[in-house]
Amino acid sequence: MTPPTARTWSKQGRTPVVVVRGRSRRRLSVAALVCYKPGERSRLIYRPAPDRRADGRKSFAWTDYRDLLTVAHAQLGGPIVLVWDNLNTHLTGGMKQFIADRYWLTVIQLPAYAPQLNPVEGIWSLVRRDLANTAFADPEHLFAAVRRNLREIQYRPGLINGALAGTGLASITVLGGN
Questions:
Q1: Helix axes 119-131, 139-154, angle to 10 degrees
Q2: Which superkingdom is the protein from (predicted)?
Q3: 178, 168, 157: which is closest to 34 by C-alpha?
Q4: Which of 16, 32, 51, 82 is the most buried (most CB within 10 A)?
Q5: Is residue 139 part of a domain?
């Protein structure tokens, strides 16, 4: 919940100060799909996961990615070509078996350390920029701000197209977590 910082303006001689009441080790994990289908608007599908989950995990498990892909397949109504990074959760045995058992799912692995090829990184950049210089009162305030920001991006396909165009990957579905 430590706020990201960004440049800002103020009156001469008055340095702007962001007051943070305390530090917290709580975090919010979000998995997202940036989807493109020729002839249709680009889409963003996401799922947040607070770190205080019933199973004790602080990040997404392969089963969470599996569930997100299943929901995306139902929403998109067709086969998915998935391009994703080398996150260890994406490479687990359970995830590999899930992929192998789905005729509608083709996976292409990004090279190591290639965030410039992942359009979801462009989405995270937009979210971080919007949240910069915000001191969150509590975890729920952070969660609400992230959800609101992602929802706004969902309704602005131009932003999603910009994230896709920045990678050169314009005809695929991409999954990334952060």
A1: 130
A2: Bacteria
A3: 157
A4: 32
A5: yes
